[in-house]
Amino acid sequence: MDANGQRFWSLAGEQAWVRQGAPPPVHDSERRTFRLGSHRELGFTESPDEAEERRGRPRMTHDRHGTHAFVDPVTNEIHGAGALSGSVVLHAPDDPVIDVAVGYDEVLYFIEEAEVWLVDLRGRWDAVAVSLPDFAPSRLAARPEGGVWVLDRNDQQLARVTGVPLPREGARERSDLLFDPKEENPRPPRMVRVDLGSTDAEEAIDIATNSRGRTVLLSWEADASSVRFVASDGSLGPRQLLDGIERPFSIGFVDVDTLAVLVAALHTEAEGGPLVPGGTQVVTYDGGPSDEAGSRLPLGGTYPLLGHDGGPFARGLDEPVRYGVTGSEPVAPAPRRLIQIAAPRHAMTGNLVTPPGAPLDGGREGFEWHRAYVEAHFPPGCGLRLYVRASDEPVEPAEEHEHVFGDVEPAPGLPHGIWSTMASELPFHDGVLPCPLEPHRAGLFTVLLQRTGRAVTAIRGRYLWVRVELVGDGRLGPELAAVRIYGSRFSHVENYLPRIYHDNRFGTDADAPGAASPADFLERFVGNFEGVLTTLEDRIANAHLLTDPQTCPEDALGWLSSWVGLVFDAAYPAERRRVAIEHAMALHRWRGTARGLRMAIDLLTGGAVERGKVVILEGWRLRRTFATILGADLADEDDPLLGGVVQSGNSVVGDSLILGDDFRREFVALFRENLPERPSGSTLDEWIQWMVERYIDPHVVDAFFDRLAHRLTILVHAEDTELLTSLRKIVELETPAHLETEVVSAPYPFLVGMASLVGVDTFLRGPEEPPGIVVGESRIGGTGFLSRPAALDSRLEGGTT
Prior knowledge:
12 helices, 43 strands, single chain, eight-stranded antiparallel β-sheet, six-stranded antiparallel β-sheet, alpha+beta
């Protein structure tokens, strides 16, 4: 609510609008803005016969090491190439190869007749084949979790291939005389049928996956084409028609949210001549998730196919999808990435409207809507039109009132939004537009809501419907972050000037067409000053926000922190500094203690101690013996060595009974080395008591305890250079001078006998890729693994053929 008591309705984010148009505007979830959708006019004619022939060609496949595999059309052999000149034979099938794909599990899959074959790229096991009755495999797509999807070429069926054979060295012969219920290979190669459950009108053509595991199925229909997304269990999503094309013969992902299809096109060799086959077109579509059936419009952009061999997309493990190119026989060149020419195409217009049945509600009849603020970016030639409709009834009226922003040429008399020097009309707010302010181009724009061509231009009505039309030039478009509508209008004329200046027209008199009345003109004229003065009054009325850490401007945080005696490093982000200032009193109260240090680290690192990434260990706690003493109450729920999960670190019965290894007495080893062996005939209690009296000098014990006092060790469970640097600065500022502190990196999750204090230097983390061998650094049996890459060309890194 502003200084005049007006409240506002904010229209920002995907839930606030319904998108309309062909194509509709696009919502950028990262920038939280709307922009015009990408659009392309398809100006070619398809060749169904060419598409039918190309859909059955075997494709190429490529891995992450820059090598690729292809099928020799003469010998039918599968070759690997890319590491050196020439190629090597990966497999020699007996029957024609239909499709080939490399998997995420380092396995080469290919289709031969009615079987799917598995070839290990590391050569650990012999090639095997799997199949299903009444299933004719035609296309493969790798699954990130391992295995491949397999598409049937005759019936609407899908299958999963999972599992791998055991390595040759790992298998052992079974004896019929030995009862062994455990299966030798718990994950043998299997092919499992998945019922798609789609209609008979759809003919499945191709299948593709992206690096995130999203799977899409391409189908032909009578006079159209469609896609469906496939869930991990094989269930199909809603049918989405591909607008503008009927017979695409291959599909892939340009990126994780953009689909690309190949279309066999016709062209003319001479102007006015007949259409002849030739050429391939790439058409892209939005590949984002959708839970509703509908259609997908082609996106703008040009993707040239340089030297395309006419076949389907190559299959790989990353984006963008690649295509095969022609080359000298018998070695096929490496497939090329699909790259867009930097010439974007956008729709000329697109609409955002308030959801049906959900207009803005002023709460009373005759509510007068005041002003609109728009946060947007308008490149040259771009802008938007703001339309509003008001009514006292919850039924949308026919008449709407237009306001323009940016480089939109307004009709005579239409109100035009003006640019404001402030990022937001809200006091001390930085705005939500994710780009810097630019005069008359980017930032905050405002306009007085009015209806043109009426005696009284005020817009009155309890309910308000809003429509925004984004306008671009086809190459560029506006970016809209938010629209805020204010009401009810606070009239400076009616509140501060005599009645002679008031507008007394109502009803039909107010709605009369023509020029605005003199009183209405005065109202709008004074509104120009009100728009400036209200924002100034708001800042004065909300000056207390300058002393609130959460609302204080970022450049004033240093000034505010000086009030409470806090000093920050310039590298700390503003969000962390705000939190620290907010908790300044607690930091001062506990400063100089382990609790205070823990609090400071958590506040300035985003909870590193709470998440277990940083552990603070006080040296005096290491006085505890690591043996089990039965009988003494040594409970300490705050002991970091125990993590607070038990009531006692040691259990004691009697005075000196210690359970532990006779030859490694931690209780004594803490203080003295080279202890004598236990004399024969003496009891355990007698031997311990004798050693304590003879070898443990009280001065030695006191010196040992003194070395552990006034010491702190801060363990960091990561090799994070930035975090280590920040911690050292925090520790230097937050610990008293008499404390010795040390920040130590503890990157190893668990080393038995070396780093195995649960909750201190032992922690859990996700699996990591094994590092490779580094000359001069790696140790045998230590770090690093030596193995050749599982590449399609086995000559890479010196592999054998």
